[in-house]
Specification:
Elements lengths: L11 E4 L20 E8 H5 L3 E2 H20 L4 E6 L2 H9 L4 E5 L4 H9 L3 E3 L8 H8 L7 H12 L3 E2 L2 E2 L31 H12 L4 E2 L11 H15 L23 H6 L4 H13 L5 H24 L29 H13 L4 H15 L3 H11 L5 H12 L16 H7 L20 H12 L1 H4 L6 H8 L4 H16 L4
Parallel strand pairs: 1-2, 1-5, 2-4, 3-9, 5-6
Antiparallel strand pairs: 7-8
Helix pairs in contact: 2-7, 5-11, 6-11, 8-10, 10-11, 11-15, 12-13, 13-17, 14-15, 17-20
Bound molecules: iron/sulfur cluster (SF4).
């Protein structure tokens, strides 16, 4: 029988990762069912590499499964493959196609793996700022100051600008946005609830049957898994939550896990929402009245400033930036990060409970409670990074690496932030209601009732005096530390705290 050569397949295969669930950007935007098929890969290496928060793993898979169903309904042939690795999953179907294409990936590792596997990568507009544009900006700067980047963004995007000047007469309204939680009862808004549908339930069953290792509470309906639901969450924020976003942006309370935060980051980070439409919705709501410029500016800064800056920095720095540990912090992550019942510290207990129950903690809890404590103790930045990556619903390599290595742990020798974000208990007392009723006293630095944050703060400055002495932004703190008469007692108490942490007795 004569051998007939199979004609080369004409269709292209698009690989879509679980964090690019959008029809609007990159290779999918110009694709059609007649010319392209789609492949999603559930990588067992990823799913089995960690003990994931159940809600995080479920949210990623279920959102992608919903998006795959949407693409099928649009007429695309869609492959959903469970494979040992992403590349092996793609290999299972690539022979039927002329080539495999994808957008640039959101992590260094996957980007490199796909390039090695001969997947054609295309730049996309999923982020507002391209990696090249950020690099061009960064190369003109003496230091990578976020505020300068943010002003550059406002000007080039012409957002919240009037006749070339910032509306409201100033770039930043942070000083208006620093209210502590009100005393007593306060009607904190609650996130919109979504009923789990058949796909959501199926994914929960799938995670159980695959025996993926998970921790934390199962989903309760707080998280959207479709674009339609995510748009409702955006509308809910604009209508019911936004007005007090600014004033309580940095507040912490035992009465609410989410306060007036938007809790939209998971959807912006996995593609269900576009950052541009989120900013447009916020501006449209402001234009209707009843929203302060401080709330609007603070929110817009998070989206076009912080979010874009963090992604830009991630791609600007070298691949092994995530391994930096400039302060040589080697303590293990305390067990209390995985079990809120293992601590008497009210602030940490509450922040960890929020993570256990919702896979979420707001940005001040992340920075000034969780990261702050780990940094003061001297926890390995890489252990903190791994914990955040597997526990937070909105985590991604590009988010967590700069936030932990550069900002939270100050492990990059100040390449990103000019000073560490550390504080003693007094800051937490000022911005929260946690200290009332806590076993410890934030004003006390030695003795059995000394707040561990306060003790460890002074000990941290003491241990790293030689690093910070030449940093003009830390000079005042180092000077104050040098004036303390009880430094030997602080050192002894800090050592005691670290020992007791190993026994879950703090
Ligand atoms: Fe946290 Fe210290 Fe306040 Fe207790 S006293 S809640 S440990 S800051």
């Amino acid at each position: 029988m004569p051998h007939t050569k199979t004609p080369p397949a004409q269709k292209q295969l698009i690989y879509i990762p679980f964090d690019q669930l959008t029809l609007s950007h990159g290779v999918i935007a110009s694709a059609a069912p007649t010319t392209h098929s789609i492949v999603f890969v559930e990588s067992e290496r990823v799913c089995r590499s960690q003990v994931w928060h159940l809600q995080r793993l479920w949210f990623l898979i279920s959102s992608a499964r919903h998006f795959a169903a949407e693409l099928t309904a649009l007429g695309f042939e869609v492959h959903w493959i469970v494979a040992p690795t992403t590349v092996e999953g793609i290999e299972q179907v690539r022979s039927n196609y002329s080539k495999v294409v994808a957008n640039e990936q959101s992590s260094h590792r996957l980007n490199e793996q796909l390039l090695e596997a001969d997947v054609e990568l295309h730049a996309s507009t999923i982020f507002i700022t391209s990696r090249l544009d950020f690099r061009r900006w960064a190369e003109t700067q003496k230091s990578l100051t976020m505020e300068n980047f943010y002003r550059w963004q406002r000007q080039r995007l012409n957002l919240l600008m009037e006749d070339g000047k910032p509306i409201g007469g100033q770039w930043n309204f942070d000083h208006d946005n620093r209210l502590p939680p009100p005393k007593g009862e306060h009607p904190w808004p609650t996130p919109l609830q979504f009923e789990l549908d058949a796909i959501d339930v199926e994914v929960l069953d799938h995670i159980a049957s695959q025996k993926y290792l998970v921790t934390g509470q199962p989903p309760t309906g707080m998280w959207a898994t479709t674009r339609t639901q995510a748009l409702k969450a955006l509308e809910h924020f604009c209508s019911n939550v936004f007005a007090d976003f600014g004033p309580y942006e940095d507040a912490m309370t035992t009465r609410s896990y989410t306060l007036n935060h938007s809790v939209l980051s998971p959807y912006i980070n996995n593609g269900l929402l576009d950052p541009r439409e989120v900013v447009s919705a916020a501006i449209a709501r402001y234009n209707q009245g009843g929203i302060s410029i401080a709330s609007l500016e603070g929110f817009v800064r998070q989206i076009i400033g912080w979010r874009e800056y963090i992604n830009g920095v991630y791609w600007f720095f070298e691949t092994d930036y995530k391994n930096l540990n400039a302060l040589e912090a080697t303590e293990p992550l305390p067990e209390l990060f995985n079990d809120s019942s293992q601590t008497k510290m009210n602030c940490l207990k509450h922040a960890v409970m929020s993570v256990e129950q919702t896979s979420y903690a707001h940005h001040i809890q992340r920075l000034m409670i969780l990261s702050n404590f780990a940094t003061l103790v001297g926890v390995s930045p890489q252990q903190l990074l791994e914990w955040m990556r597997r526990m937070f619903i909105d985590a991604a390599d590009w988010v967590m690496v700069p936030n932990v290595i550069g900002m939270g742990a100050h492990a990059d020798n100040g390449r990103m932030m000019t000073k560490p974000y550390v504080s003693g208990g007094n800051y937490i007392k000022k911005m929260s209601d946690y200290c009332k009723g806590c076993s410890y006293n934030p004003a006390v630095r030695v003795g059995d009732d000394a707040c561990p944050f306060t003790t460890l703060y002074w000990d941290y400055l003491d241990r790293h005096s030689d690093v910070f002495i030449s940093n003009h932004r830390m000079a005042r703190q180092i000077y104050a530390k040098n004036k303390l008469a009880d430094l030997p007692a602080i050192r002894a108490r800090a050592e005691h705290v670290r020992n007791e942490l190993r026994n879950n007795a703090i």
